[in-house]
């Protein structure tokens, strides 16, 4: 495994709690040498098949969901558990369309009323040119699909018009969009206007002409008091009955229908027309969009994701693209290593189990599998797991330099020592990214200081490598040309492309960069701030152990709860050690906790507490409230135990023989020792940190 010099420097300054000698070895020689399996809240490994097995994989149907290409100009973000604002574009790729934009717009406007020019002017006034253009493209694509035989199944694509703060402007924009594009609906979400396909429009087009369907939905949206709408005369009684049934089933709480014979009605001319009018008391008090209440209850599908040598955000981005949703529709309990084989529970919103099963063959090409697929009632949240199980092979075991003891004895001694005494519960290197120039904690610090432009530049800082990704980043820092950088940035770099799409739309200003950060879901934005907090915690625990060792001293913070296995315990369980308790050795070192930075934590009342204040001052955060309102980020903080122990440890030493033919007829048989080790760790603990304590070796 290639070692990062910067990380060796950063992590060699971290300390150990045990006193054995340790040994050298190589981890992650291949992804299969490092297997991570999530343990759910019930204590079960998530890679175990559930009672509902996956059915035989079917070929991918040629449906709309497959052809949907996500333009990740903006992704959604989540603030809290019940609020969501979708700021993204979902539309078919231009390369899949065989008509020019003007040809499509001609088709869309066929059924438009004479007042079309007025509505176009309204949209042009309220929307910027780019958004207006994207809306027209989105409408063209949706109209083409609605006119085709393709069924809109699963999650429908959406397009955001952005946040409109003025209530009256929002109302005008809602109406203007629906009047120009009656085959679309608009939904308001926290000042955000989101445009979706009107599925009822296509259903009605099966019963009446396209022109009638367009004018009917315009009539519904206009809400003119005492107005009526009349369908074309119809001689077929069964067909009229079907139209009555559709209108009353879908909009019966708003309108009523009646059939009236034409004036020249006769046996030879049995034409009857259906007339629609608003119910007297309903439309007068109606304020919201006709379609806001029609959204179906969200569908949630749970599954286990197996991935190999793949970054989690890249995996989620690929799944989102194939399923026609956005990355923030996925929820998970924790992040997993890239260079490993990992199994973790996930939940995707707005996707049925059947739809997820249908993409399995496609995602296998990206070294991913999904199984244990089933319907559930809600999404997952970060930390909603008991821990992780690890199966690890450490190869090429060797003694430490100048250590002549028996290697097997050294290995067994080290494992037993950590098994009994534990390890320092540092956040692992993967928490901070593997860059040499910029780490995720530096991005997080810039965000905490509300330095949005600086945070974007840090995120797009290239490494000293000559590859397409770093060439694109270098070009951006030299030119700040987001559009040109997009043409250089590889498709698989989902996060970078999402950010660049937004910068192209909003510009490289402070406000533009704020909008660009909203192209990341909430969980990803908060990740960078957590990285900074994690770095400070690592430094704090090193200082604590260097200053006081394994003694529990006055002013320390201890957790009073039993079997604390996560970081989310309240202040009421955290106790400040008194002078008397120090003298009586009331508490053990395993009970000591340190705060992870946030607005709802207390600091130790000793030298460690003073150290925290000095660090905050050093980083310009002495007045920081750990809230970033412009990005809707709140960081309450938490407490983390300074020591942890692995559970269910088992291990086996294995000899491997390599035959080296250096000369003809001469064979040199070299025997190398490998260690197969398995153990469980509590949530938010790092196997690489545990191995570091065992081996006394920085990776």
TrEMBL record:
Concerning its family, UniProt says: Belongs to the pseudouridine synthase TruD family.
Query: Which NCBIfam families is this protein grouped with?
Result: tRNA_TruD_broad (TIGR00094)
CDD domains cross-referenced by the UniProt entry: PseudoU_synth_ScPUS7 (cd02576)
The TRUD domain covers which part of the protein? Answer: 422-645
Q: Where is the composition biased (Basic and acidic residues)?
A: 92-116
* Record has RNA-binding as a keyword: no
Please give the InterPro entries that the UniProt record associates with this protein. Answer: PsdUridine_synth_cat_dom_sf, PsdUridine_synth_TruD, PsdUridine_synth_TruD_insert, PUS7L_N, R3H_PUS7L, TruD_catalytic
GO MF entry, a single one: pseudouridine synthase activity
Q: Which function does this protein serve?
A: Pseudouridine synthase that catalyzes pseudouridylation of mRNAs.
This one is known as Pseudouridylate synthase PUS7L
Which keywords fit this entry according to its UniProt record? Isomerase, mRNA processing, Phosphoprotein
One Pfam family hit: PUS7L_N
Q: Which Gene3D superfamilies match?
A: TruD, catalytic domain
* Reactions performed catalytically: a uridine in mRNA = a pseudouridine in mRNA
Task: Give the residue ranges for region: Disordered.
Answer: 91-116
């Amino acid at each position: 495994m290639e070692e990062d010099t910067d990380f060796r420097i950063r992590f060699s300054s971290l300390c150990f709690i045990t006193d054995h000698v340790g040994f050298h070895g190589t981890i992650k020689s291949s992804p299969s040498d490092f297997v991570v399996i999530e343990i759910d809240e019930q204590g079960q490994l998530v890679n175990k098949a559930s009672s509902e097995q996956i059915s035989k994989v079917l070929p991918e149907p040629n449906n709309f969901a497959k052809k949907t290409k996500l333009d990740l100009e903006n992704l959604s973000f989540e603030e809290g558990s019940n609020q969501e604002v979708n700021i993204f574009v979902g539309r078919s790729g231009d390369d899949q369309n065989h008509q020019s934009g003007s040809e499509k717009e001609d088709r869309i406007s066929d059924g438009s009323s004479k007042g079309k020019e007025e509505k176009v002017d309204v949209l042009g006034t309220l929307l910027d040119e780019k958004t207006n253009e994207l809306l027209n493209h989105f409408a063209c694509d949706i109209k083409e699909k609605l006119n085709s035989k393709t069924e809109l199944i699963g999650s429908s694509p959406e397009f955001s018009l952005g946040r409109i703060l003025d209530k009256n402007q929002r109302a005008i924009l809602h109406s203007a969009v629906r009047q120009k594009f009656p085959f679309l609906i608009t939904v308001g979400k926290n000042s955000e206007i989101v445009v979706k396909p009107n599925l009822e429009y296509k259903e009605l087009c099966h019963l009446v002409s396209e022109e009638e369907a367009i004018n009917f939905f315009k009539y519904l949206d206009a809400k003119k008091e005492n107005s009526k709408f009349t369908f074309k005369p119809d001689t077929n009684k069964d067909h009229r009955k079907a139209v009555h049934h559709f209108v009353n089933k879908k909009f019966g709480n708003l309108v009523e229908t009646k059939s009236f014979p034409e004036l020249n009605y006769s046996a030879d001319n049995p034409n009857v027309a259906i007339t629609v009018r608003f119910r007297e008391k309903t439309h007068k008090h109606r304020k919201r969009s006709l379609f806001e209440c029609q959204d179906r209850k969200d569908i949630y599908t749970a599954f286990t994701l197996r991935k190999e040598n793949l970054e989690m955000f890249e995996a989620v981005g690929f799944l989102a693209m194939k399923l026609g949703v956005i990355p923030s529709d996925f929820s998970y309990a924790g992040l997993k290593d890239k260079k490993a084989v990992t199994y973790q529970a996930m939940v995707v919103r707005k996707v049925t189990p059947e739809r997820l099963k249908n993409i399995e063959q496609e995602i296998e090409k990206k070294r991913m599998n999904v199984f244990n697929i089933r319907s559930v009632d809600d999404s997952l949240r970060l930390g909603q797991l008991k821990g992780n199980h690890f199966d690890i092979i450490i190869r090429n075991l060797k003694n430490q330099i100048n250590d002549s003891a028996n290697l097997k004895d050294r290995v067994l001694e080290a494992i037993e020592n950590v098994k009994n005494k534990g390890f320092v519960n540092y956040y692992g290197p993967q928490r901070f990214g593997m860059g040499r120039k910029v780490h995720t904690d530096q991005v997080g610090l810039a965000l905490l200081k509300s330095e949005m432009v600086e945070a974007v530049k840090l995120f797009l800082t290239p490494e000293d490598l000559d590859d397409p990704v770093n060439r694109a980043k270098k070009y951006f820092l030299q030119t700040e040309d987001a559009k040109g950088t997009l043409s250089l940035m590889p498709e698989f770099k989902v996060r970078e492309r999402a950010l660049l799409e937004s910068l192209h739309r909003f510009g490289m200003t402070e406000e533009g960069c704020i909008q660009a950060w909203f192209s990341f879901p909430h969980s990803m934005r908060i990740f960078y701030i957590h990285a900074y907090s994690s770095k400070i915690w690592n430094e704090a625990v090193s200082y604590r152990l260097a200053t006081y060792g394994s003694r529990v001293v006055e002013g320390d913070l201890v957790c009073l709860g039993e079997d604390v296995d996560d970081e989310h315990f309240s202040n009421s369980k955290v106790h400040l050690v008194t002078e008397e308790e120090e003298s009586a050795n009331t508490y053990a070192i395993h009970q000591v906790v340190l705060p992870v930075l946030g607005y709802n934590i207390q600091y130790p009342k000793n030298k460690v507490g003073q150290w925290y204040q000095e660090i905050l001052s050093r980083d310009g955060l002495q007045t920081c409230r750990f809230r970033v309102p412009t990005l809707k980020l709140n960081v309450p903080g938490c407490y983390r135990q300074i020591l942890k122990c692995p559970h269910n440890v088992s291990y086996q030493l294995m000899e491997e023989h390599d035959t080296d033919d250096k000369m003809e007829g001469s064979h040199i048989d070299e025997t190398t020792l490998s260690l197969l080790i398995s153990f469980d760790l509590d949530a938010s603990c790092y196997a690489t940190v545990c191995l570091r304590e065992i081996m006394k070796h920085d990776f």
